[in-house]
Amino acid sequence: MLLSGDSLLVGDIARPDLAYEATEGARTLHASLRMLLGLGDHVEVWPAHVGGSLCGGAGLSHKTSSTIGFERRANPLLTMAETEFVQRVTENPPSRPPNIDRIVDLNRRREGSVPPQPAALASEELSRLLAAGITVLDSRVPAQFDDAHLAGAINLPVASPGVGTRAGWALDPTQPLLIVADSDAAARATAGALQAVGFW
Question: If we measure between CA atoms, which residue out of 138, 164, 168, 141 comes closest to residue 151?
Fold first, then answer.
């Protein structure tokens, strides 16, 4: 089994331009992929990202795993020589997410605290935060949001693919957020998706 992290993904490869200059990142990624392809076809691949993640491209599957053999046969990027590979993966990169520098800084830390789990708020604290203009992220399904929601709330359902990625485009990771959820588990899941993209 291979935990491939941000290198070989299911149906795609990781973007080379998020943590490094694009050409340097592409060369390093090509060398890494060459080593991984030296593994047997039977080796399972378990990447760090699935479809909807900002770390992959349009080919990124929602499947959570694959095999080296399948990826070798199905992904044309894996058969390219370095020069062609670098040109292909750097020619039209998608826009860099606005919070990517924060994500990279957090990932490069050698030590430090992790964010706490969100705590339920009493009505007085909730009123104080709303009066102060806190950003409200409502993680419930659209039908529940349409039935009733806090004024000015942003609906970003936790069950939707790429919830953390979309938050990264729409919200400021340095500002406090208030999460509305229909259960403690949904609040924790929303916080986890946000924490993965630098919202602490």
Answer: 138
